[in-house]
Each structure stands twice: as structure tokens, then as C-alpha cells.
Amino acid sequence: MIVWGVIFAVVIAVAFLAVRMSARNEEEGLQDTGLAIIEFNRAFPAEAIRALQATANGQAVFVRLHDNKAGFMRSMQRHYACHVIEPGRVRVRGSETGKGLVIEFLDVPHHNGTFEFASAREASEVSLWLLGNYVAEPDRSLPAGDPAAANKR
Fold first, then answer.
1. Domain tally for the chain?
2. Residue 78 belongs to a domain
3. Residues forming a β-bridge with 75
4. pLDDT beneath 70: ranges in the chain
């Protein structure tokens, strides 16, 4: 009888610890930048990450890639959805709070939504990444301040 009581107590303790660890992982989301880097590199091993910006709730991360491309990650409960945003395939506007962005992904509409950041500065930085992704390649190649180049447009 004592042996069964001890076994029962150990099973209850293990179950309690497993539930607590699971709840903590769900709360953390993608705020751990190391996890976000690993997951994005797993999905896109050829892309070099320059910077990351997580939303305030940690459920989404915007990724600035080399050559001014942008990426997106979203926590989907037990896995992470990752994609590289193709140029011209996203629409962005500011949210009512001023600390967020209302984003419409034309290629993956199920990820559309309002993404709130910790500050307006973080939201503006992400919007610049998306703008840099949106600008066409020929516009980037023109020399700055060259009036002859501007007239050729």
C-alpha cells in the first residue's frame, strides 16, 4: 500500500511539472530571439538574418533579411509558420494605437492582422523593412542626388 502511494505521488508530481513547463513555453512565444533565429533558419537556411523585431505579445516576429528582403514568423500553438515576404505582396498601414501595424499579406491571407509592438519606434522600424522590401529593384539602383538619373524615370 505504501509503495502504491509513493508511485501515485511521483506520477502526480511529474504531471504537475509537465503542465507548468508547457504553460511557460506557451507564454514565452517567440520573444526568445534565439528560438526565432533557429526556427527561421530551419525554414529558410539560405537566408541571412540581419535583425529581428517581435510583437509586444511575442506571437509574431518580423525578420529583416540580407539584401533588404523581409520575413515573417507566427506562433501557431505547436509550430511556427515562417515565410519570406515577396516584394509588392504586402499592404501596411498604421494601427489606431500608433504602436502597431495593420498588415495584409497578399500571398498568405490567413496571417493578416494587427500587430502591436512595444513602442511606435519598433513599429516604424518594421514598416521601413516592409517598405524596403516593397521598393522595386530598378529604383534602388539609381544614384542618390543624380538629377540626370531622376529625369530618366
1. 1
2. yes
3. 80
4. 21-31, 133-153
